[in-house]
Amino acid sequence: MILHETLFSEADLKCELQALLNDSNAWQQVDQNKLMQSMLVHIGSVDSELRDGLIYGCFYTMIVEQDLLHPALLNDTLQYCVTDLLDKGIGESESDSVFT
To answer: pLDDT digit string (tens) for 2-42?
Structure first.
């Protein structure tokens, strides 16, 4: 799923996610694949506002509250999380990967 095209930087992702939380219509105006990929790339950020408040918050809003994700995109996201992120950093010491 992660294509590593030009993704949002952490700062740009913060702005995009804040806009989404403030205006549910903004979802229709963003590149949804780029946004989702950026969220997954930055999901392990040490920036707790980005990680906990915005990325996890937007996933909850988009998936549970507003049902905005196309089933195929939701399935791809789930598969990527299970295969690439679920065990990431387990057993590592002195690493920030625990945030992922």
So the answer is: 555 689 999 999 999 998 888 867 877 888 888 989 999 99
Tallying the residues shown for the chain, one arrives at 100
Instruction: Please tell me whether the overall predicted TM-score, pTM, comes out greater than 0.85 for this model.
Output: no
Q: Among all chains, which residue has been given the structure tokens 């806009």? A: 19
Spatial separation of the C-alpha atoms in residues 79 and 81, rounded to whole Å = 5
CA dist., res. 56 & res. 71, Å (int): 19
For 88-96, which contacts have Cβ atoms below 8 Å and span 24 or more sequence positions? 88/44, 89/44, 96/44, 96/46
Report the C-alpha gap between 77 and 37 in whole angstroms: 9
